[in-house]
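ok trying again, last paste got cut off:
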Amino acid sequence: MRKTAKAAWVFPMVCGYVFINTELGTAASVAEKVGKIKGIETACAVTGDVDVIAHFNVKEVSDIATVVADKVHAVEGVLATQTLICVSCHGEKCKVC
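nice, full thing came through this time. structure:
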């Protein structure tokens, strides 16, 4: 959060990750469909405790509900999600935080 010249507060975009558990055999198709959702930057089928990890960038925290609860949960094959919001990002590719 920073002040602009007119003393209005400007909030940066909100970024984070969604860990997605899928039905057996659907990780690749879920990742493909989730990757097409507005607000999702990338979606990758992965190995480990979760099946898909999606990275999101949205304008406001309230937009996470639209992206995750309304859109990701509607994708066929999604069983459960866990949403993680970034509080501090580091690296040249991260322009959000």
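cool. The two ends are 9 Å apart (CA to CA). The chain has a mean pLDDT of 88.
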